[in-house]
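Hello everyone,

My group is preparing for a crystallization screen and wants a predicted model to guide construct design. The compound we'll soak is zinc ion. Before spending weeks at the bench, it would help to have a computed complex in hand. I've included the protein sequence and the ligand's SMILES below. Output in structure-token form would be ideal because that's what our pipeline reads.
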Amino acid sequence: MAAKTVLVLIDGVRYDALFKVNDWVGLPNMRGILNDGVLWRNVYTLEPFLTNHITQKILTGHQHYTQNYTIFQRLEYLGFRTASVGTNPWDGRGARFNFDNLYDKEHNYQSDDVRFDCACRILPKVDFVYLYTVETDEYAHVCRDAHRNIYSWESPYIWAIKRTDTRLGRLRGWLEKITRGHYNLICVADHGMTDNGRHSIGTWTMEAVTHVPVFACGVNFKRGAKVDARFYVTDLAHAIVNLYDARVPAHMFNSVLSRAAAMPAVRS
Ligand SMILES: [Zn+2]
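Reply:
Good plan to model first. Here are the tokens for the complex, ready for your pipeline.
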């Protein structure tokens, strides 16, 4: 049986935060995931660097996202149950449980605890959960508006990442408990951030905005693996569907899938 899988989109966390913020305040849970699993060191996002565009690209695996099926639609078609937590209704189309009411543009930054709780509650009922978290992006924009560097000592961006790390630890602990280790936890960012807390102004040459962290652990992944091949966020959807249906090509995960999970079966 395919493992319960959670995809967490952490809005606006740039790649080097995994190292810089860890050095400063510690990110034991994010580092734990990549130490126990896989770190992709060269994944890039695609223009325009706006969350609603990139979310769609991540969830469909296509540049032309409005014309293509979401992960939810593809997994539901295969007979699996899916949930979308905290993103807008259209992004979560096809999910059996679509908690779009948590997508609140006015109070977004206060709602990540609710989103994580919601994901934990629905997890026992489904095979795949997509969880959108936003606090990190919101606090980068607080830095932008206050003219602070996102990595300065008084930056709230750092502490938003730290809080997200703590929530990820709770989520992983819950996954361990309810699946007895038969799970996958995958994290990705939709875009990075300039030093000044912006991303919408980015171009494809701007490393801080285009280079995004992807890290994962779980029953389907090798332990302690690093991937240096270059991928794009649009590669992720197909790789995730492959965890449930081996007929789908999964270039992004190919070199790091554990042998035990090399032949996932489609539920009949
Ligand atoms: Zn933003």
